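note to self: dont lose this again. the chain is below, predicted strucutre after it. 313 aa total, dont forget to put it in the shared folder this time
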Amino acid sequence: MDMAWKRPVEDFRFGKGISAAGLVAQMEAAGGFGGKHLGQGVDIIADMLRDEGSVNFLSFPACINATGTRGIIKDMVKRKLFDVVITTCGTLDHDLARIWKKYYHGEFELDDAVLRDRGINRLGNVLVPNESYGIVLERRLQPMFRDIYKSGMRRPSTRELIWAVGERLRDEDSILYWAARNKVPIFVPGITDGAFGCQLWMFYQEHKDFSPDILADEQELSGLVMGAKRSGALIIGGGISKHHTIWWNQFKDGLDYAVYLTTAMEQDGSLSGARVREAVSWGKVKPRARQVNIDADATVALPLMYAAVLSKL
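---
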């Protein structure tokens, strides 16, 4: 702290053909405000991923996978950059639905009653027709579940079930496709909270011996955390995926690296808006962890950050 003020603020300088990585590096050097935090986050993530003794978590909510940001998550899994993924049921919904159908551009201010009459669901400024979501998921998932059931699977963890679904896909744009092929574990603690979970429930009506074993996930997560020398996490957004990530890391005295990327505010006391420093009080992040909180929309910040991280790796 005593030396921090001696580092001068630097202006942005734009030459011909500046790269995204070069721009992010200047953000950190510019010293002001959210841009500095974004640059710091890139440095922490790159060091975390280079640390061979660190078990690294990637946590995110479903909504970003309704956008082109899904391509970044897919690429992270394809490159096996993270050891563990924790997300929400909607990630499975959007990843699978977009294999078979299209989502479309919209606006936040559209008339939602009119959209309802036309059979179109609005997710922010993304439009999801009924046939691109629930209808196609039911048509495709029920035969897949029957095939998984015939293979002998009865009480899979969510990780095992996700890999089983991913093994039956042929689309290289899919997160689940690469998770299955690269054996990257994806855990969904709220597996019933979405269309994928609803289809599981429908399948369960005639196959009462088939249902996810949530505690098997917890057993596997405990082994991953307890065996880690160090651990790190890139936590995008909040909710159950964020909490599950930091919850398990408290059992090894907290994360050694923590990068939060969120638009939520902390003044309402929500977990989604809670800063890294609050997690320190719970033992979920170590007091001396390398950490930063980036206040930004993931669809804006993550592409810049990912380009910069890749350049460092």
